[in-house]
């Protein structure tokens, strides 16, 4: 019997969505009163799916990601990760995280920071060193392996955190503005790498960003959130096939999707840009959400 139920549980975990969020509200108690950060969040992310969260500053994106990662608890509602509770998934290290602050250990070198999840999982020293070398090469930090975090720029620290989050090829990545501190060239290179890694490992990703083009380029679906309390306003499915090549960045369909997300953010109102239809002309429109914030 035990054997059968274990098999059933394993099958459940295999067929389960990567993330399921059901009826989640979050209210913070502060000295100056209650802050309603999230209201009525319903979201599921399939295994292997790339979902971005976008919305004005303070709309609860980081809070939602932290709840999925079990770093914070919902006030009501529940979260499952691969069919398990968020807490169990954290204990089982089912996901990798790369958050707004790099969160590196200052007393460890770059290489030792990247090696940490491998050490925690008892990976042998030689295999660990090989994997760390591979990851540092991928994020372009091979020469900095023996430096300490405070000797690196903010963007370099973020790349260390990204390498660390990928160390164990997790089936789920939770990323909060991981490319925010990177220059445009490095950012595009990291986006391309992330797409490649997801295709190779079949990882699902929940990705917070303020950049509409970044969300469109990376995602299968873009979740557009509205401010105070944070709600899901619209979920926009990217109709870009599976092709994520460099030429997509100049493709008409890409600009059409950018316009669709932009209009969803403005609640169906294309805003002050004066451009309502999709097309190459949108390329020069400022599409960064911070610039389009409504408070
Ligand atoms: N620990 C906390 N205590 C009290 N209020 C909090 C706490 N964490 C977040 N908040 C509040 O919850 C709301 C959502 O914050 P959150 O950090 O999730 O926003 P965000 O969408 O990630 O914003 P940004 O784009 O600026 O990163 C904000 O009003 C914030 O002030
Ligand atoms: Mg945030």
From TrEMBL:
The keyword ATP-binding applies. One of its GO terms (molecular function) is ATP binding. CDD domains: ABC_NrtD_SsuB_transporters. Keywords: ATP-binding, Nucleotide-binding, Transport. SUPFAM superfamilies: P-loop containing nucleoside triphosphate hydrolases (SSF52540). InterPro entries: AAA+_ATPase, ABC_transporter-like_ATP-bd, ABC_transporter-like_CS, ABC_transporter_ATP-bind, P-loop_NTPase. Residues 19-252 form the ABC transporter domain. The keyword Lyase does not apply. This is Nitrate ABC transporter ATP-binding protein. It comes from Microterricola viridarii.
């Amino acid at each position: 019997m035990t054997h059968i139920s274990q098999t059933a549980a394993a099958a459940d975990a295999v067929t389960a969505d990567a993330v399921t969020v059901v009826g989640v509200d979050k209210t913070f108690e502060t000295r100056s009163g209650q802050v309603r950060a999230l209201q009525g969040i319903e979201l599921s992310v399939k295994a292997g799916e790339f979902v971005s969260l976008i919305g004005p500053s303070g709309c609860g994106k980081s809070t939602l990601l932290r709840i999925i990662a079990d770093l914070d608890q919902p006030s009501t509602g529940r979260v499952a990760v691969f069919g398990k509770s968020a807490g169990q998934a954290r204990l089982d290290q089912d996901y990798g995280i790369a958050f707004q602050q790099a969160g590196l250990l200052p007393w460890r070198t770059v290489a030792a920071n990247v090696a940490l999840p491998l050490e925690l999982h008892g990976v042998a020293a030689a295999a660990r060193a090989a994997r760390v070398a591979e990851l540092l090469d991928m994020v372009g930090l091979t020469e900095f392996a023996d430096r300490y975090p405070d000797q690196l720029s903010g963007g370099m620290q973020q790349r260390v955190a990204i390498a660390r989050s990928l160390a164990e090829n997790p089936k789920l990545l939770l990323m909060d503005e991981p490319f925010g501190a990177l220059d445009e060239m490095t950012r595009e290179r990291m986006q391309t790498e992330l797409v490649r890694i997801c295709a190779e490992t079949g990882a699902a990703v929940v990705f917070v960003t303020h950049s509409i083009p970044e969300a469109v380029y990376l995602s299968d679906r873009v979740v557009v959130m509205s401010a105070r309390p944070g709600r899901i306003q619209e979920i926009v499915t990217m109709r870009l096939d599976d092709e994520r090549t460099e030429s997509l960045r100049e493709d008409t369909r890409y600009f059409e999707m950018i316009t669709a997300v932009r209009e969803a953010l403005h609640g169906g109102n294309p805003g002050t840009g004066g451009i309502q239809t999709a097309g190459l002309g949108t390329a020069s429109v400022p599409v960064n959400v911070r610039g389009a914030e409504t408070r």
